[in-house]
Write a structure and sequence with these properties.
Layout: H1 2-16, H2 18-21, H3 28-41, H4 43-64, H5 67-73, H6 78-119, E1 133-135, E2 138-146, E3 152-160, E4 170-181, E5 187-200, H7 206-210, E6 214-227, H8 229-232, H9 250-279, H10 284-290, H11 306-310, H12 322-388, H13 394-419, H14 425-448, H15 456-467, E7 474-477, E8 480-483, H16 492-500, H17 512-521, H18 526-531, H19 538-575, H20 580-614, H21 624-629, H22 634-656
Antiparallel strand pairs: 1-2, 2-3, 3-4, 4-5, 5-6, 7-8
Length: 658
């Protein structure tokens, strides 16, 4: 099974990287070397899935063929049957950690370098759509490529770098372009059409720098030549890229993470000192004293001392004339604007640094979590196979794929959220495995105790008890559950007799509201029932209307509550997966839904207060404090509120219906 899954994933990897291999005249040994390096990187996907699938298949086959029944008849429990495999899984988990710590970084290191070197063999193949690509001393981005060799380009943006002056000071933008090359020439010709050229001119004179000298022009056709001799003279065995996080073992990652933490602390400290220095707080008193000579003649004299300056209680700008006030205001505005720009630039830099640190933390804990995941997934798959009692490829394969996809996608979403700091990177790496841990414990416990996979009563009974949920047409009388579902078979006359003469028919008085509800469901109007001798007080009718309104508003509240939470959850999912506009829309709609929920929540509370105000039964009214606590948990509070109102309405019916 491991070999089959490995073959499937290798073919998928070939399909994924086919654009990097096709059309480059690569030798067969280079392609095989590429596949050799890619294969170990697939182990974190293949091995957990293999363990999960095989454990379900093997133990499902044992259960299907009554092997476990035979084992139990001889006194062999499920734990004893799993003991040998458990030891093997522990050894496999340790081996997996060693593999992840040594072989996978080696494979990542070689695969990344080989891909970089292959990309240089034909530079035109290295230009990917929608992103900047390095081509010689140019950084080029195109919206779309066309042609049989991808030689026609549209919406070209280029930055040209120079050895003597680092940075992007030359920008070229063109509507379209074409790559021309000859097999006998080492020159790649790039022809651009209908564009603009912009270059910042360097000057050593400060006055000229203030004028921001630059050159710009428009062109219909612009031809550039790129020397490919250095680019095409590529050593495919070159391994100059060594600093990526997935190329390091545990020791290297710990050292790098420690360095990144130290650099982060230094950056924050230097940044704080820079901002503090720009405030000039340390020299403010001396500056005020040194500028005492510009105090207006008509102002209050201020003695030449720090204590006198500090004792001044008026507006500080009143110490200066109008011209100086304008100068100070402009200086303050410029200082604030430049400080804001510094903060924004530093924030972007720190975000990149934080993302790099989070990636290293994720890479470190992925090595530990891989071995632990193999162990946990075995204790998910083995008891699950024993419970479903089905071996072979069919059902076990479907269940294994569904479980693994759930495990895998939770891990992907969590790691994407952790890269930008939304989620703790350590927790994100372990999250999917920690979710599977209680599932494994639960399944192992049920399989050991010979219980079925799905025992809904054991799940639902505690919930029903908490929410006070009972079967339809039932009530608690003297601590015992009494069901009146048999009233469905009574005709109208008998139901009326139940209401009027419940004592003679040996019924408890709690039967009256259920009989009345049955009559109203059969389109019996209140007037009809009164004509037939049933006494229904107007107070009860008013209470019934108020109870119906309260429950209806509560339903609207819980609907908007659920929609709002769902949209807020989708906002974070979309945001962490590169869909900012969709995330913003989901967030806005979610907040609107929650505001509508609050509106209906308040109305529900007010309607319920009116209901309990008119209720002439000795029951506890709604507690505002409990309603406030239930505000963020209205999915549960709704059922508690609805059941309480219905229960108290039935108590009113006992008194007001005769």
């Amino acid at each position: 099974m491991f070999v089959i899954l490995m073959l499937i994933f290798v073919l998928q990897a070939v399909w994924l990287y086919i654009s990097e291999l096709a059309g480059k005249d690569l030798d067969v040994d280079v392609i095989f070397k590429f596949l050799l390096y890619i294969t170990p990187t697939l182990i974190p996907l293949i091995l957990p899935l293999t363990i999960l699938l095989v454990s379900i298949m093997v133990f499902g086959s044992f259960a299907e063929n009554y092997e476990f029944a035979a084992m139990k008849s001889t006194g062999i429990s499920l734990q004893r049957a799993m003991r040998g495999l458990s030891i093997f899984i522990v050894l496999l988990s340790v081996t997996t950690f060693l593999f992840a710590n040594n072989v996978i970084p080696w494979a990542e290191y070689n695969a990344y370098n080989l891909r970089k070197n292959i990309a240089k063999v034909k530079p035109q193949m290295a230009i990917a759509e929608g992103q900047f690509n390095e081509l010689g001393n140019f950084n080029i981005k195109v919206d779309k490529k066309s042609g049989d060799r991808g030689q026609f380009l549209s919406n070209v943006i280029m930055h040209q770098s120079k050895v003597t002056r680092p940075g992007n000071y030359t920008v070229i933008i063109a509507e379209s372009g074409e790559l021309k090359s000859s097999p006998t020439s080492n020159i790649l010709q790039l022809v651009l059409f209908n564009g603009n050229y912009y270059e910042e001119i360097f000057s050593k004179k400060p006055k000229e720098i203030e004028n921001k000298p630059h050159a710009k022009s428009y062109f219909e056709t612009y031809t550039m030549n790129v020397d490919l001799e250095a680019l095409n003279d590529v050593d495919l065995d070159d391994k100059s890229y060594t600093s990526r996080y997935n190329m390091l073992d545990v020791a290297g990652l710990n050292y790098t993470i420690d360095s990144l933490y130290n650099n982060k602390s230094v950056e924050y400290k230097n940044f704080a000192e820079t901002l503090y220095g720009r405030t000039s707080v340390g020299t403010i008193n001396s500056n005020l004293i040194s500028e005492r000579n510009i105090i207006p003649e008509n102002s209050t004299p201020v003695e030449d001392s720090i204590s006198s300056v500090d004792a001044f209680k008026g507006n500080i700008t009143d110490l200066y004339d109008l011209k100086t006030k304008l100068q100070l205001t402009n200086l303050a505005l410029n200082t604030v604007n430049s400080t804001t720009q510094i903060i924004e630039t530093k924030q972007q830099f720190l975000q990149v640094s934080e993302k790099n640190l989070n990636k290293h933390l994720i890479a470190l804990h992925e090595k530990y979590v891989l071995g632990f995941a193999c162990f946990i997934l075995f204790f998910v798959g083995a008891p699950l196979g024993a419970l479903i009692r089905k071996g072979g490829i069919g059902l076990p394969l479907v269940i294994a794929i569904l479980l693994f996809l759930t495990y895998h996608f939770i891990g992907i979403f969590a790691k994407n959220s952790a890269e930008d700091g939304t989620l703790n990177p350590i927790l994100a790496t372990w999250l999917s495995t920690l979710i599977m841990l209680p599932l494994g414990v639960y399944l192992t416990t049920r399989a050991t105790n010979d219980k079925g996979l799905f025992d809904f009563d054991s799940y639902l009974n505690p919930i029903k008890s908490f929410l006070n949920l009972r079967p339809k047409n039932s009530v608690i009388v003297d601590g015992e559950l009494v069901q009146y579902s048999f009233l469905d078979g009574y005709n109208t006359e008998k139901l009326i007799q139940v209401i009027k003469n419940h004592d003679a028919l040996d019924f408890d008085e709690s039967v009256k509201p259920f009989a009345l509800n049955q009559l109203l469901k059969r389109n019996q109007s209140i007037e009809d029932l009164r004509h037939q001798g049933v006494v229904i007080e107007d107070a009860y009718l008013q209470l019934r209307k108020e109870a119906t309104d309260s429950i209806a508003y509560s339903k609207f509240a819980v609907i908007f509550y659920a929609v709002g939470l769902l949209l807020i959850g989708l906002h974070f999912i979309f945001k962490n997966n590169g869909l900012p506009e969709t995330a913003a829309s989901a967030r806005d709609l979610g907040f609107i839904s929650l505001l509508v929920y609050l509106f209906y929540y308040v109305i529900t509370f007010l309607k319920s207060k009116v209901f309990y105000k008119h209720l002439k039964v000795n029951v506890k009214p709604l507690n505002p404090f409990l309603m406030l606590i239930g505000l963020p948990f209205y999915g549960v509070s709704h059922f508690l509120l609805k059941n309480k109102i219905k229960e108290d309405l039935d108590r009113s019916a006992i008194l007001n219906v005769k």
